[in-house]
Design a protein that fits this description.
With 412 residues, the protein is mainly beta. It contains four helices and 25 strands. The strands form six sheets. Strands 17, 18, 19, 20, 21 and 22 form a six-stranded antiparallel sheet that branches. A hairpin with a 6-residue loop joins strand 2 and strand 3. The longest helix is centred in the middle third of the chain and has 8 residues.
Amino acid sequence: MKPQFRYLDQPVLEPMPGCAWADKMVLNPAIVKDPESDTIHMLFRATGPWSEKKREGCHDPYPIFLGYAKSNDRGLTWDADFSRPALAPALGYEEDELYITDIHGNRVRNYANGCIEDPRIFPVEGELYMSVACRIFPPGPYWLSDQEPPVETRFEYVPDWIFHMSDADAFVQTARANDTVTVLYKLNLEQLKCGNYEQAFAYIGPLTEGQISDNRDVFLFPDKMHIGNQERYVMLHRPMNVKPFPEGECVQKPSIYLASANTIEEFASSQAEHRLLAAPIFDWEENRIGASWPPLKINEREWLIPYHGKKNVQFGYTQSFMIVEEQEHDYPILTHRCPDRLMYAEREWEMPSDYPTPCLFTTGGVIIDGELIMAYGAADQKVGISWVNLEQLIQHIRQYDAEGKQLHTTSV
């Protein structure tokens, strides 16, 4: 029997009219449990027309911000701070404005200048981090590209001088395409929940190479793993262009990859090693798959990985789960994969409006008293919460092998 997911009959957060940075979309939240209580802290993605940065002849820019909210009742209700963003892009336009001071005090290129999207929160070696998909420049109303006829606004705020810079500069190449690069921040939860947003985030740098591929759904396992003869950091990621990666010419479609590196900074370099973890195989995954939020440890060697698939514009994004197992001196391998979409848009308030694509997209989960509480974006405009018994979910996933085939009962 499938595990029973519980949902609310309404969103817990939605766009805030009159709030310039959040009156169009509020979605794709990361959540983390407070170490001192059952309070859940959230960082949500939000956008609105930012007319103060509008260029003549262009649509309003729609930079993407992060807002903060918290829940004291296990996700049923949320108190959101719409007075100001928790983290905002710098929105510089000139070359000398595209720098930021990193966690080490160095002046570095700012990959988060235009948009800060889809946060995920996770620990690494006991410290808390956040990954975000970023653009160097903000787009216009980007949802118009999914309408008929499509209107492409991604490049409206890419300045002309970028095209006169050196072709060898990876930052310049990424800026020209205005693709997403995943950026890592260190997160100070104490400062965040006190409203000291300026002290809550420390910029570390990119985790992916934007000049190679748009790359999202990126997060690290909390502890190093033995890969070969070394202890290395291990990361999940989903490149849009898989051809430069192992087995990419074979799988063709955006897939879930593992990467390992000696240092976190090496992930966005040729020193990182990559390994294919999972590619689309089911009908509802026909277009792409990606890990949805950071893996949950379920025993000494196994991890539960929530993941999403997309078939097409009409069918949309849906969610399922897989289990991977650590190996001696090698990358984790996929051992169990549910062939069914366990979570998908079906309530009226989850149906699309501006976007034509149905979308239920989980981006965070926490465990309280054996219950898995998940936050998700719905219809690319609202935030929902779902609950499921964790042990029942895991037992259901264990019914299937790595290819989603039913195992004999005696083997489960």
